Amino acid sequence: MIKAIIMAGGSGTRLWPLSRSGYPKQFLKLNGDDTMLQSTVKRLHGLEISATVTICNEEHRFFVAEQLREIDGLDSIILEPVGKNTAPAIALAALTTEGDPLLLVLAADHVIQNEQAFTDAVNQAVPLAEAGKLVTFGIVPKEAHTGYGYIKKGSQEGSGFVVDKFVEKPSSQVAHDYIESGNYLWNSGMFLFKASRYLEELNKFRPDIYSTCLDATKNIERDLDFLRVSKEIFKKCPSESIDYAVMEKTADAVLVSMDAGWSDIGSWSSLWDISEKNNDGNVTQGDVLFHNSKNCYVRSNDRLTAVIGADDLVIVDTKDALMVAHKDAVQDAKIIAQQLKAVQRSEWELHREVYRPWGKYDSIANGGRYQVKCITVNPGAKLSLQMHHHRAEHWIVVSGTAKVTNGDKTFLLSENESTFIPVGVIHTLENPGKVNLELIEVQSGSYLGEDDIVRFEDIYGRVKN
């Protein structure tokens, strides 16, 4: 049997402003009705999968759990205390698994358009992995792409090829030479091997990573849907990719070809490449009008966007940021995100609409001493029992039913009813109903930051201030 290991870390800053550090691309619906994480799990249905382990960081744990729960795909979630690249992350999964299954390692942010071809390639790789080989999947290249690494095929090995060598992202001319030779495939970052074989090779070539991960998993803690390893130990682990740590060193690396309409959606232009286009080559999401414009990608979900006399542009409009870029320059979106981070602006990390384990909030207005939020609380969800030192809050229910604790009183509020919470009063809010609770929160005070929260109780295990 195969155990799927889904790597759901990463910040996806090349798809800013939609993808941000606090809500990166793997949790977005970029290519269909499912998020990229959900699509990754769903494409496993054609394989004999015994379990699915998702690896993510602390910050994103509730996004992962909720999205997997929506598709009935929640098995186990390993939390990385800090990001240490793919080699340690896979080691955590291998060390915490029972028995010695085949591990199918997948990234949560890839697109596979031909799922049957994906399934066929994995099944072809199974005998090789069962024989002790470490299989990597190479994508049949469609163009001389300079944004991907390449793998050179060696001699035939069963249904695959011995890996001759790994090659970093090449220049344009070198990439053309690779394509002409027919001996090179794109490096997909997908793998299949026995858990024991990966650990053996990791211990052989990077014993420092192996021993640190082994120590970090000796006292696993289960917290709701999550498995926690030792933060103090794991943060000492070297950061390294599986390619550098193992695949480029082992004598048992085998390459299996995959021609499945694969893309890692590494930029807005790559998303344009795989999307359905109109007669002028334009791709749209949301309310968009064109006049005399061709080969554009325009995404505008919250308001009308009109594009006039423009070719080869990417336009992405969110609630708090607008990006306009030429398709040839969209890789530099990450530079804008870096600039925003450097000057401590929130737009590199968070959207105006912020997700929480209990639901979400949208900051719809703010000033020097006030802020207005639209809050959505999921059915059965509850905010922490908390208080604020610097702000008062006024809650007005728009729809649904709220169960409110305000000081020493607990009561229900229905549509068009409200309550006022003075500074320093302990309070909480929950949704006892079967539909979403929506309310308007008006904050007023001398300081309105999210760090002015003193938590006393929290059903999601968030750390008290």
Structure explained in plain terms:
It is a single chain. This protein is α+β, with helices and mostly antiparallel strands and 465 residues long. The protein has three domains: 2-263, Spore Coat Polysaccharide Biosynthesis Protein SpsA, Chain A, CATH 3.90.550; 278-341, no CATH class; 353-457, Sandwich (Jelly Rolls). 22% of the residues lie in helices and 36% in strands. The protein contains eleven helices and 28 strands. The strands form six sheets. Strands 18-19-20-27-22-25 form a six-stranded antiparallel beta sheet, with no helix packed on it. The longest helix has 16 residues, at 115-130. The mean pLDDT is 94.
**CATH fold field value of the largest domain:** Spore Coat Polysaccharide Biosynthesis Protein SpsA, Chain A
- Radius of gyration, in angstroms, nearest whole number: 24 Å
Strand content of the residues, in percent?
35-45%
Low-confidence stretches: none
- For the record, give the distance between the C-alpha atoms at the N and C termini, rounded to a whole number: 44 Å
What is the level-2 CATH architecture name of the largest domain? Alpha-Beta Complex
Protein structure class: alpha+beta
* Strand order in the largest sheet: 18-19-20-27-22-25
Q: What is the count of helical runs?
A: 11
Helix content: 10-25%
**Could you describe the largest sheet, including whether it forms a barrel?**
6 strands, antiparallel
